[in-house]
């Protein structure tokens, strides 16, 4: 198993000393993200997030399957993460590293367990047929802060996604192709986003947002907070690392809320832009089969 | 079965009869396994955990993905290469530990996450830089689960590391805290709760906190449920306070065992230990 090469002592010292002098290598403020870009693909449910040099692609798909026996009224919703060797030589195919396990758990807790997607709406025939929605997360390039980028990509992909329209008629389930009926969006309840803080210094007193890969290798601890714009915490994960004062952590969640609101606006803006682009003849409103809630 | 929280407001008593700021009964022992370098047994209410520490030892052949020590493996430090000892944590959750019998496979992500958390939390306190090119194996066995599992695992691992005599800054003591209201309800009257049991953990928002010794410095903060941001401060404050109580309990266990060992003559009373209160 090839190991990730640690940065040299000189590099480590350079980064930490610069941070002590309130400087980051790329000249950002401590609470500033790298340029964040979100684009959608030609297909529904493909989101491409670029955060500096980090790039994540998420693709949502849906198919009709049999629901789990113990949850006959719920659809199936899975998030699959894959960190391939093209991201970093230390990742191997079919052998999840600790990074990947923690990333997938985090996305699971943030998006799935917080009930962002209404799984009951994915049920077609109780106990027999349901939608299985799956999001595949691919890290295309890794320059730190995979978590925040991946979470944004998953949320954007799911909000952009349209599943085929269906109807039930006399016990016969019909799934319509996009040509027959315009696909319908998922029943989306709230949009949670991750914000990761990295801590530096002897007592973790320097808190930095959106660490690059080099900063991630040097940091003494990190804390990922997931929130939605309503100020509900969906998950907090500070899994060990140098102990940080409780007050600092509280301040971090406060700043995270502001960032989450920015993310939410970005996703909303890009979604409306994409919708306009697709709505060429202006027929989208008539084609829509769903009702306004 | 949903937890009936409606009665809480009447008598301010929780389902198991505790008040909001009470810990469950904590029973802990150290040096439970004679052959191990360090071992402990910890009960927090009905959550029961055993821990065995081996090491610091020479690292074995490189683990190829599959953790040698059981279901969950998590390691920090860079083993042979770096100047620090690697802490390898293996967690085995017994099939009979919860109400419904369940098999926990080797690749269970939740177990792996727990293992990695315990390993990273201890790495912050243990002086791993004193043991370069070596490995500390922590093997945790969950015998019974009734909420606050992560907290119990961290506490048990801390005790076992103390028993193994690995130099550390201070105890890493952990406990859980919760809130009496659901995430949607924005009522101001919601009380924070200390040390959640399984039933409360299922129904109410809660978090696990681990602090370093008597300080306010938080090593682990895990929240897995939806909760209003305004509620966090109260929960965190109660959690940190609970950790301080937990530290006292752990410290007492260690001291009592030390006194007993000296009385039994297992160990010589060391020089410089004269000022320890031996009542």
Topology diagram in text:
The complex is a heterodimer of chains A (293) and B (279).
Chain A (H helix, E strand, L loop, with lengths): L8 H12 L15 E5 L5 E6 L2 E12 L10 E7 L15 H16 L9 E3 L3 E13 L4 H15 L1 E2 L2 E4 L2 E4 L8 E2 L7 E8 L5 E4 L3 H6 L2 E7 L4 E7 L5 E2 H33 L5 H4 L6
Parallel strand pairs in A: 4-6
Antiparallel strand pairs in A: 1-2, 2-3, 3-6, 5-6, 7-10, 8-9, 11-12, 11-13, 13-14
Helix pairs in contact in A: 2-3
Chain B lengths: L7 H4 L14 E5 L7 E7 L2 E11 L14 E5 L9 E8 L15 H15 L11 E10 L4 H16 L7 E8 L12 E3 L3 H6 L2 E7 L4 E7 L3 E2 L3 H33 L15
Parallel strand pairs in B: 5-6
Antiparallel strand pairs in B: 1-2, 2-3, 3-6, 4-5, 7-8, 7-9, 9-10
- The rounded distance between the terminal residues' Cα atoms of chain A is 52 Å
Q: Main beta sheet of chain A: strand number and arrangement? A: 6 strands, mixed
Q: Which residues of chain B sit in consecutive blocks of at least 5 with pLDDT less than 50? A: 64-73
Radius of gyration of chain B: 19 Å
Largest interface: A-B, 42 and 48 residues
Characterization of the model:
Chain A: Belongs to the RNase PH family. Chain A: One of its GO terms (biological process) is rRNA catabolic process. Chain A: This is Exosome complex component RRP45. Chain A: It is found in: Cytoplasm; Nucleus, Nucleolus. The complex is a heterodimer of chains A (293) and B (279). With 293 residues, chain A is an alpha+beta fold. Chain A is 29% helix and 29% strand. In chain A, the strands form four sheets. In chain A, strands 1, 2, 3, 4, 5 and 6 form a six-stranded mixed sheet that branches. A four-stranded antiparallel sheet of chain A has the order 12-11-13-14, sandwiched between helices. In chain A, strand 5 and strand 6 form a beta hairpin. Chain A starts with 8 loop residues before the first helix and ends in a 6-residue tail after the last helix. Chain B has five helices and eleven strands; from the N terminus they run H-E-E-E-E-E-H-E-H-E-E-H-E-E-E-H. In chain B, a hairpin with a 4-residue loop joins strand 9 (206-212) and strand 10. Chain B has a six-stranded mixed sheet with strand order 1-2-3-6-5-4, with helices on one face. Chain B is 27% helix and 26% strand. The termini of chain B are far apart. Classes of the chains: A alpha+beta (293), B alpha+beta (279). Strand 14 (232-238) of chain A pairs antiparallel with strand 11 (227-228) of chain B, so a sheet runs across the interface.
